[in-house]
Amino acid sequence: MLTTKEAIAKRRSIRKFKSDPIPDEYLFELINAARLAPSGCNAQPWRFKIVKDQKSKIKLAHAAYDQSFIANAPAVIVCCADISGYLDGTVSGIQDLGKIGAVEDNIVQILLKRAGQLKVYPVEQIGPQIAFNVAISIEHIVLRALDFGLGTCWIRLLDGQKVNDIFGWNENIFTVALLPIGYPAEDPSPRKRLKIKKILL
C-alpha cells in the first residue's frame, strides 16, 4: 500500500481506461474514504451517485460538453453538494462544537448567524460556496483509488442543470464534479509544477 506521500506524487489525471469492471467493494471503500473527510462545522454536505450503466455515462459525457472519454470509464462518480443538508448540518455541527467546548460561544453565535444568512442565498451562489467541502472529500477518493490501482480524473467543466435532469434531481443538489474512474490504460508523465518559492507569499 502506498504512503500518503507516494500517493500524492503518483496521482495523475487519467483519461484512458481499461474495460475491466471495478469491484463493488472497491467503490464502497472509495465512498467510505470520502465520508471520513473534514468539512466546515462537520456539515458533511457531500452526496455521491455511482454510475455504471452506459446510457447514463453517455449522457454525463454530453453534460460535460461532450468529453467522450467520460463514457469510456467503467464507472463515473457524480460528486454533489446537498444544500439543505449542508445548512441543517452546519447548525447542528456548530451547536455540537459549542457543547464540547471546541469553539468559544462568540464563534458559535457568529457561525449560527452566517448559517441563517445562507438560507436566503440563491442556489447559484450558495452551491459554489459549499463546494469546497465536497472537493476535500473528492480528493480523499482520488488518493484512496490508487491503493486499488485505479485512476481518476476531476471534471469540473460541466452543465450542472443537465446533470440534474439526467437523474431527476431538484435544485437542492449542486453538482460539484464528475469523477470517471477505472484501471488506467495510460501512464501519463508528471505535469509541470511551480517551484515552492513561487507559491510562497
Describe the structure.
By secondary structure, this protein is of the alpha+beta class. It has one domain: NADH Oxidase, CATH 3.40.109.10. It has nine helices and four strands. The chain has a four-stranded antiparallel β-sheet with strand order 1-2-4-3, sandwiched between helices.
Output the structural class.
alpha+beta
- Average pLDDT rating: 94
- Enter the CATH topology name: NADH Oxidase
The CATH class is identified as Alpha Beta
Low-confidence segments, given as residue ranges, are none
Measured by DSSP, the beta-strand proportion falls in 5-15%
Query: Numbering strands along the chain, what is their spatial order in the largest sheet?
Result: 1-2-4-3
Shape: globular
Key structural traits:
201 residues; alpha+beta; NADH Oxidase; 4-stranded antiparallel beta sheet; 4 strands
Layout of helices and strands, plus pairs?
Elements: H1 4-10, H2 24-35, E1 46-51, H3 54-63, H4 69-72, E2 75-82, H5 83-99, H6 105-118, H7 123-145, E3 151-152, H8 160-167, E4 173-182, H9 196-199
Antiparallel strand pairs: 1-2, 2-4, 3-4
Helix pairs in contact: 2-7, 3-8, 5-6
